[in-house]
Amino acid sequence: MFAGFKGVGWTFRLARGVGCGLARDGYAQGMAGHELDTNDPIELFGEWMREAERSEPNDANAVALATATADGVPSVRMVLMKQVDAKGFCFFTNAESEKGMQILENPRAAMCFHWKTLRRQVRVAGPVVELPAANVDEYFHSRSRRSQMGAAVSEQSRPLGSREELEARLARFSEEHPDVVPRPEYWRGYCMRAERMEFWMDGMDRLHDRFLFVAGADGWTMQRLYP
Ligand SMILES: Cc1cc2nc3c(=O)[nH]c(=O)nc-3n(C[C@H](O)[C@H](O)[C@H](O)COP(=O)(O)O)c2cc1C
User: In this structure, which residue's CA is closest to atom 24 in ligand 1?
Assistant: First the structure.
């Protein structure tokens, strides 16, 4: 389930004139000036993600994740988006970190993907729910022993006296758990269900293309926006 992006969890079809980067008069190959021919932004996201996996030097699934306190003070950081399906855009983190605490008190988030080489951006926003423990266990134990231990010994986002303290903690933990690394209860998975998705493509002279999808009772509606 969490084996990566290729062929996992979702399918897509080519959005003619978007995924293909078809040129139009006055525009360079791959630049803006296109129409969308899909009503399914998740499918389109899958297409763009696959192209990003081919074009970006690393971590095409890296995404800026914005959360906020209950009274609306925002914060943002990068995470790795590990799965996209009907539940939403999923990532894993420490529930006691700053972002974890903010999701607890205000379970909404926004994400922004930026693929530099493709000159594309995707923004997504919606409510956040936790993944079932079984899914989190599966993902946690699919990672290397060192990654599991690193997650287990980190009191993410809280003050740390020194690098030595962290490394001593890791060494002690490794001795105490020579075989299976138990998933710490605070290591969780979260999924943000997409209510709004905006696809942005770079254009010449600031004439970028923007397509906003909004989820409604009858499915998605799509609207072109001024750049
Ligand atoms: C490319 C990249 C990917 C990252 N992926 C994750 C991730 O998947 N989960 C995570 O907890 N932190 C990840 N981090 C670290 C976070 O950006 C952040 O430092 C950490 O989660 C603490 O954030 P917080 O204090 O806002 O909760 C990543 C950082 C980078 C630069």
Answer: 98
